[in-house]
Amino acid sequence: MELTDLILAPVVLPLIGASLAFCAKAFHKNDKAWKLESFAAAIGLGLPLLLLVYLFQFVNLGQSIQVSIGRWPGNIGILYRFDGIAWLVSLLGFTVGSAAWVYSQGSGPKGPGFTTTFLIQTASMAAAAMTVDLFNLFVCLEVMGLASYILVASSEKPGAYLASFSYLMISATAMVFFLIGLLGFYKLTGSLSYEGISSVLDSLPQKGGTMATASLALIVAAVAIRVAIMPLYGWLPDAHALAPHSISAVLSGVLIKAPLFALTRLLIVMPGGGDVGRLLSYTGAITALAGVIIALSQKDTKQLLAYHSISQIGYVVCAWGAAIAAGITTPAGIALFSASFLHALYHALFKGLLFLTVGTTTDLAGERNVYKLRNAALSLHKAGEKVPITFLCFLTAAFAITAIPPFNGYASKAALSYTLKGSWQGLFLYAASLGTVASFIKLSRIYLPDKKSISPSTGMNMPLGKIKKTAQFSQLFLALMCIISGIAALPMSRLVLRLLGEVESDSLPPYLFSVENYTKTGLVVLGGILLYFLISTKSGKKVLQLIRNRPKMFHGNFVALSLGMAFLFYWIKLSN
Amino acid sequence: MVERILILILSLIGLWGIVYKKNIIKKIYGLTILNSSVVILFILEGSQIGKNAPIMGKGVRDMVDPVPQALMLTAIVIGVCITALSLAIAFRLYRFTGSFDIDEIREKVSHGTD
Predict the structure, then answer these.
(1) pLDDT, chain B, mean
(2) CB contact (8 A) between residue A161 and residue B86
(3) CA A360, chain centre distance (Å)
């Protein structure tokens, strides 16, 4: 087997696993079915991880391996490129995916159907990270979407079906516009590969003019729906909040970032890509702040986490867009890009962990309302958790997302503020981190005993089941990853930098663990505590209620999509 | 030009169905119509350069561009999957709420979760 075939394995192995898992339906005996299913998951999730370790030596040398599927010539065939970006995105996907799969074996959903869909989703994620063909990107996004609509609905709650339906409608419509954009590029250039399109566009008068601009706007807006950048976020909160916990972890951790990094390959070669990057950087900063304000107002624990995903993806998009605008081969650009990836990776770890721990807690306590659920630590203890693993893991993740050293969020947020220094976006992100602290104080209170009814005899804290070993295991795994990647932040950031480009640059301050940085963190925490007291006052609560009860309509998504596309079009047009 | 205007009207009908129809089955119809209009648009654009079907054989000349047709085969398959899945979800929603009206469903669902 040649190396060029080997790089297709992260896509092919999960698909093989998916078909094996589907065969497990043939067994009536549960035990045999489960064995085959686990074997399928090992092939689909474990083996690719091992393979990524092996492939590291090639990407570490800065190699980018290109393969045409079915060995068709490059201008007709579908090209896949395996390089630093693909390696990093796949690593992120398979790590969080494996942890989530293990978690779901204990706490559901499980069964051959679930494993099959889950593996197909993972395969499409890996494919989206590698493809350099516009139509193939369309197929990857559609397959990824189809799998995630099913997985969101698999929690079998009526709300989850509605969320899945809204998600399906808006993203299927957006993908139709993606196709129209694709047709525009194909008509202009006769090519579907990114390089083919951009090289022909460069030779055209005015680089393709209005048609090229419109096509780019359509495609970027359609992908932005999947990433849930601010005006296009409407589908996300319900879908992520009502999905099963393991699926929420994957959706928030991985699936909203894969399209973003897939878009990178297109934007860096396309004329006008830099302008799109700059606009997305601005919207990212606004998303980060607005997302956290809405998160602060939520009363459902998982809704709160879902809005935090929007806010955190805003951080990622902000630095990512600035990187594209600066040019990914310049030292400043590569530093921004690696900071953005570092945060995407670390966010996947801690947000996955948050969804799992909070999910475990609310399931066992039988209550999801932040204002009602109290003393959850006791419920967990009664559910058979003698060492408070879930609580400690929750604390790890909460400290990570609020950027407390030495957890990993501290490092990636330091990288973001270091690379975005001096821009107004940096200030927005700073303000957003105050909100993050305040909302996690609010969320952490579910574990604390209530002042009024401190006696546990009220029956409120009777757990609804036993804690699952698999849940504890995957939570511990992610928590360990959060701590290790936080302590080893400097080597990690150098690794990401080296994989993304060969330009000498630095995305982290040289003295990460220094008194100066600790003071900054201390100030943020103090500000957050202050904000928390502010929102606990009567008028604060009223404001939050107004934000929480803002009207939500089905067609709001569509209005946002069309406005977003039009705005994007004029933005690129006027920037030229 | 007439063909293009017809396709535009078709796609606007689809979009209108998705956004403004209250009945979720009609929304799904809208999505299918929108999808089909793009398929037709691709085929139309591909047929600009020739007349004959792109099947390789002796003496076949003046072929249409085969790439858009190949792409649309894939897009149609995906469209069928999406229609099937959305109908399945619509059925489940009907079983839970006894209604196809999106506002009514939203109301009943949010009462259920609070």
Answers:
(1) 90
(2) no
(3) 20
8 Å CB contact of A169 and B97: no
Contact B113 A164 (CB under 8 A): no
Main-chain phi, psi angles of B106, to 5 degrees:
-60, -45
Q: Which residues pair with A67 in a beta bridge?
A: A80
Euclidean distance between CA atoms B18 and A554, whole angstroms: 10
Distance of CA A456 to the CA centre of its chain: 38
Lowest mean pLDDT among A160-169, A282-291, A360-369: A360-369
CB A259 within 8 A of CB A128: yes
Cβ contacts (< 8 Å) between B67 and chain A: which residues?
Answer: 186, 192
Number of domains in chain B: 1
For residue A551, what are the contacts with CB-CB under 8 A and spacing of at least 6?
A: none
Residue A375's CB is within 10 A of a number of other CB atoms, namely 21
Distance CA(A173)–CA(B16), nearest Å, equals 12
Kindly give, in sequence order, each residue whose CB lies less than 8 Å from that of residue A552, ignoring residues fewer than 6 positions away. A234
ipTM: 0.94
Of A157, A187, A192, the CB nearest to B45: A187
Domain that includes residue B107, residue range: 1-55+62-112
When CB atoms are compared, the residue of A139, A162, A168 closest to B106 is A162
Residue-wise pLDDT tens digits, A354-407:
999 999 998 888 888 888 888 888 888 888 888 889 999 999 999 999 998 889
Query: What are A82's strand-pairing partners?
Result: A65
- CB-CB under 8 Å, B20 with A180: no
C-alpha distances (whole Å) from A292 to each of A312, A314, A430, B76 are 8, 10, 12, 40
Condensed to tens digits (0 to 9), the pLDDT of residues A351-364 reads 999 999 999 998 88
CATH classification at residue B83: 1.10.287.3510
Please give the average per-residue pLDDT across B106-110, as a whole number: 85
CB of A18 closer than 8 Å to CB of A123:
yes
Mean pLDDT in residue range A84-106: 92
